[in-house]
C-alpha cells in the first residue's frame, strides 16, 4: 500500500447554539508515503477540522465524527478511543499549530518538554532522552543546544519557539506530520527557514506531511499535491502543477486570482465576491454556487461529483460533467 493515510467519506459536525454545523461534509483524501500534501482554502472551509479529526483533536463533545474512515496503516482512527489515540498522538502522528505558545508549557524547560514524549513513547532513560533533546534542538537549527535545553519558552523568540515545537513533533520520528499554518505567525525570513527545515525532514526521512495553509507560495515551495477545500468539501485535488497551471474548479480559479472575469484586483480570495456557505444550513448543491460566475441551475440543485481530469487530478464541478449544462438536471442525476 502506497498510502500512509486514507480518509474516506468523512463527515464531522459541531453542536452549537445554532444547531448542527456540518463542518466537514464527505471528505476523501489520500496521503502517500513520503509526500507533502497541501490543503488550501479560506477559513471555515473545513481544512483544520479535517486535519484535527485525524488526531481526534477537535473539541469534544461538541465535535463528532458522524461517519467516515480515517485509515492509518490499515487501522481506522475514527473508531479509536481517547486511550487508544494516546499511542498515536505525538508518536505515529504529530501536529504543529500556528501559534507555538499554545503547544508549549510556559512552566517547563524546553528540554523537559522534548524529553516527555521520548520517555513516554520510546521508553528512553532520562539521560538518553536528554541527549536526544540536545540532538533535536541541533537538528532544528537552535544554537547552543546544551544551554538552551535548560531554558524556558519565554527565553526563546517566536521563530525559535516554533523550531522547538517542530523538535517536539519530530522527537518520536512520526510517520505523519500535520502542520496547520506553521509559519503564519512568523516573519518572512524565519518562515523560509522553518519551511526549509520541514522540507529537509520530508526528503531525508520518511515523514509524510499534511500542510494546511492559505499561502500559495508556501504550497509551491513545499508540496507535491494540493487539495482545495470549500464549504466543508474537497472541491479539487491535483499535483502542484495541475492546480497551479491547469485548475479546473472555478473556486480554484478564484483562489489563484486567475478568473478571467476578475481583472480588477489580484490579491487572491479578496477577488471572489460573496461569503462562504452557512454550514449550519449548507446548500444542497455545489457549495460554491452562490459565488460562482458560471453557476447553472443544476449547480444549486445537485451536488457535483468528483470527476477525473487526469490520473492525479479530480474536480467536483458541473462544468466538467458532460450531462451539464442543462437547464434541468437530466433524469439520471435526479436524486
Ligand atoms: Fe460553479 Fe456550478 Fe462548478 Fe459549482 S458546479 S463551481 S456553481 S459551475
Ligand atoms: Mg484554521
Describe the structure.
With 335 residues, the protein is α/β, with parallel strands linked by helices. The protein has a domain at 99-173. Helices cover 30% and strands 23% of the residues. It is built from twelve helices and twelve strands. It has helices at 47-54, 82-86, 100-103, 110-122, 126-139, 145-148, 158-170, 188-204, 216-222, 240-245, 250-255, 297-301, and strands at residues 3-16, 19-32, 36-40, 63-72, 75-76, 93-96, 176-180, 208-212, 225-230, 233-239, 306-308, 314-316. The strands form two sheets. An eight-stranded mixed beta sheet has the order 6-7-8-3-9-10-12-11, with helices on both faces. A four-stranded antiparallel beta sheet has the order 2-1-4-5, covered by helices on one side. The longest helix is centred in the middle third of the chain and has 17 residues, at 188-204. 43% of the residues are buried. Residues 258-269 have low confidence and may be disordered. Residues 249-250, 286, 288-289, 292, 294-296, 299, 304, 317-319 line the site of iron/sulfur cluster (SF4).
